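pinned: reference chain
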Amino acid sequence: MAIKLDQLVAALPPEWAGFVRDWDRSLRAAGKPETTRYNYLLAVVQLGRYLGERDADAPGAVDPTEVVREQVEEFQAWMIETRSRSTALNKHKCLQQFFRWLVEDEEELERSPMERIRQPKKDVKLIPVMGQAETKKLLGECKGKDFVSLRDEAIIRLYCNTGARLAEVAELSVEDLDFGTDSVVYRGKGAKSRRVRFGHKTARALSRYLRARAKHPGSGLPNVWLAARGGGPLGANGIKIRLKRLGELAGVADVHAHRWRHTFAHEWKRAGGDTGDLMLLLGWTSDAMPRHYGASAAAERAQEVQLRMGIGDDV
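pinned: its structure tokens
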């Protein structure tokens, strides 16, 4: 995704816009991935807009170095009420980074207004996995031999087969694919690379798509995925929109790439796979992630054991 910084800061006061631009420069210099930069910048922009709409003359609404703890807490509460606890937690973490930058790098503040603001507790939900029947319905919408059908099938199979993040698949370049070993190199969070194998059905779908891609106006681009019209790439947002559209056509609700990631972890844990190996394949560094992603599998295993034990059935 290409960050359109001018559009992002358009409604902000000059002081806010200037600091956002400077922070983006600092993030780029640190080699932060584009998706990470966008999430960071968006949180700051949303805080600036929120404060401006509440009271445009308030010091914090004019200049981010004047923001106080109470203003951030109000913004956080508003995020919980209008979005979700998970979204509010994400904004909290992004704002921590921004104000830390103002304190440590820019020396514009002595203390961050984020100090002693508690993180929102994230809602614990069992994210529904993407069942085989649902994936087959989606693939059924990609049965044609046209460019879009071949591309969409390859995208779906890669998500389903490797459990990759939305952006990891979206940002693939042609050189990341290795058909000698039927593997792909993903560049995950923190600029960490990993190689993941894919199966023969995914390899066949990718090969068919690449043959069609060679005739596309944008075939000279390094990006694996190309938009149907014009010669440009298909980015993460384009894939997200396309998956949603395929879900509507196939009658499958709530289709997004992350559900296949949960499915991958779910099936891995159900099969008794090693947690350390799962972390390597999915690009995790914290063992909290397998517990979170494997929660649905654990719940399903518990239910299977419950039925097998038949507690209370013999009363």
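why pinned: The CA atoms of residues 1 and 235 lie 6 Å apart. The chain has 15 helices and three strands.
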